[in-house]
Amino acid sequence: MIHIIGAGLAGAEAAWQLLTRGYEVRLSEMRPRQMTAAHSGGQAAELVCSNSFKSDDPFSATGILKAEMQRMDSLILRCAQATRVPAGNSLAVDREAFAAAVTQALRAHPNLRWEEGCIEAPDLSEPTLIATGPLTAGPLAAWLERTTGCGQLHFYDAIAPIVERSSIDMGIAWLASRYDKGGADFINCPLDRDQYETFLDALLLAERTPLHEVDATYFEACLPIEVMADRGRETLRHGPMKPVGLDDPKTGRWPHAVVQLRQDTLAGDHFNLVGFQTRLKWGAQRDVFRLIPGLAGAEFIRYGSIHRNTYLQAPAILDATLTVKSCPGLWVAGQLSGVEGYLESAAAGLAAAFGMDRWSRGLVPLPFPRETVLGSLLHYLAHASPQDFGPTNAMLGLLPPLEDEGLDLRGLKRSGGTRAVKAAKGEAHRRRALAALESHLRHAEEPT
User: In this predicted model, what pLDDT tens digit does every residue of 101-144 receive, in sequence order?
Assistant: First the structure.
């Protein structure tokens, strides 16, 4: 029997991988008996922030990571594809249907034992994976700190609001994707210069929810909209409100700024404000966000909010297989291990299951090759500077440099510019990653 604590993205993926390998799995989840500051139910793989699994560009880091996970029969990606909603060149899902699909697949497996309740101190007489995520309950977090001998870290994460589709004024907004990539999947609300300045003034003056710590730390890839605005009056126009690639059909030109909304449900009745995670108080959100053209009558299904996320100092605690170095037989995966993002969390759960399987069969650890996006991410967790460590997304910059790939980068730049070079390098990274993964999987199956 293998014990997995936490039925989020990492725990659900790890459970599925082990179940398909013939193991009996005990999956412990404290929800709904004990809720977190961000969850709303007790299903597996509940998405509490965005509903997006990022870009489907096959030559991006996330596109390559998805290909790697699909090759290894990822349950999370299978359910995401089955419940996807229009989102241009990205994979976004109906969060309720997605969680239901993952939960149903797991609960239907005869070798799974689902247990409700909070685990405060795991029994390490059986292989154990802790995948309780950034909202790990206090007693278990304290146990982890004692067991690993290393203090925990934290940052603040914010959620974007969701509005009713019927309350958006489509006489002002229009449907399109940036540069017309994919379908016309986003609702776009245009702002001229005066409207942008008025919105910005109100945003900067709006009342914010206080934080518990004086020196609060945010994850840079998910900053609250008002914190971005604090950094300069043009910051939003180069971030979530950038107008590039969006021609307003009324003018035929890019607006001064744009707010995009992405479909959040299969029915298309709810849309979330892309990049508008916030810690504004609810009344302030209503007043400020209704200043956006097209949202004057917006009805909010969910207001934005902020919560504290916990993660381990991975380089001091974990190896590249996500094993706790001081405690063989114990693994940590998902956002608690220091990865950031839905896709990365699920991938970490998959990798942990791979390691648990080998450990249970008495085989030596076999980290994923660094040429893969998954391997490069886990290598970074294990070898980054502990003093500077922070939550990490999948990035091509984590991969080893390309060598002998037959790329004429100078010629490509002359003929196609920077975009051509970027595309060629991404394609080369993908080709190398998938070849390395195939070799790795063959090696893992070889008899010892």
Answer: 999 999 999 999 999 999 999 999 999 999 998 888 889 988 99
Q: How many domains does the chain have?
A: 2
Residues 344 and 415 both lie in one domain = yes
Q: What is the CATH number of the domain that holds 23?
A: 3.50.50.60
Q: How confident is the model at residue 214 (pLDDT cuts 50, 70, 90)?
A: very low
Q: Give the neighbor-by-neighbor strand order of the sheet with 90-93.
A: 52-55, 90-93, 84-85
Cα separation, 253 vs 239, in Å, equals 19
Angle subtended by helix axes 95-107 and 75-82, to nearest 10:
130
Domain that holds residue 216: 159-308
- What global pTM score does this model have? 0.83
Residue 4 is inside which H or E element, if any?
Answer: strand 2-5
In 77-134 the beta strands, taken as DSSP E runs, fall at 84-85, 90-93, 112-116, 128-130
**Nearest CA among 353, 420, 277, 445 for reference residue 2:** 353
Q: Which of 269, 293, 308 is the last residue of a domain?
A: 308
223 and 277 share one domain: yes
CA distance 10 to 351: 9
